[in-house]
Write a structure and sequence with these properties.
The structure is a single chain. The chain contains twelve helices and no strands. The chain is an all-alpha fold. 32% of the residues are buried. It comes from Xanthobacter aminoxidans. Residues 62-252 form the ABC transmembrane type-1 domain. The chain crosses the membrane at residues 62-88, 100-121, 133-157, 177-201, 234-255. It is found in: Cell inner membrane; Cell membrane.
Amino acid sequence: MKTHRLTFAFQLFVTLLAAAFLMVPAGASILAGFTANYFRGVSSGLTLDWVKQVLALYSDTIWLSIGIALGTLAATLVLAVPAAWALVRRPSRLARIVEEVVTLPVAVPGLALALALILAYGAIREFRMSPAFILTGHVLYTLPFMLRAVMAVLAAVDIRSLEEGAASLGASPLQRFFHVVLPNAKGGILAGALMVVTLSIGEFNLTWMLHTPLTKTLPVGLADSYASMRLEIASAYTLVFFVMIVPLLLALQVFGRTTGSAR
């Protein structure tokens, strides 16, 4: 019993130490966004002026990131859910190959994927200069996460047997998709949606290569603020980024625990 307590105490100490190692820099950055003068510290006073300046200077990057994330979510839903249904319904060597090809962008560095898009479509000026170019990259990058999440849920509930039962009652393929597949896939769809939106908002490497001066997203604007603005403004921008991304991460964790408990 004593050995178990010592082991638990050591594990707790290591966990808290690792958490502090990760959280202290983030906390210091957030605090800098509230201080009137970072080099004088908290004694200089607390203010929201830096946050206001971020919203005034970079609000377009925030809205663009939200728009691209929602567009990416819509595209992945339209592409991944029917694809997952088809791959689970007819498992074969070809289906496995298709699945691996779709998930290939996860293994490819974001910079390489962005370079491939530029080489393939960079000559189309209107497309290259529009947010749709970044959205295309985000769809390619996040599609595997939605696909795998939905496939895992459909495979777990044995969707083929449920479909066969619905078909024996006279349901058409379209009716089976909307009334059998989608209700049973909603857990995977929600988990995939949270991952897609989180990854899209936070993606930097791919977006850095694809963006133009008129299509800066939140992470690109954050890098720009650290490079060209006062440290307090960059820290306030970091705070805005955390406010957007942390709730999504928490929701993903809560959903994962809820799904695990239900299973």
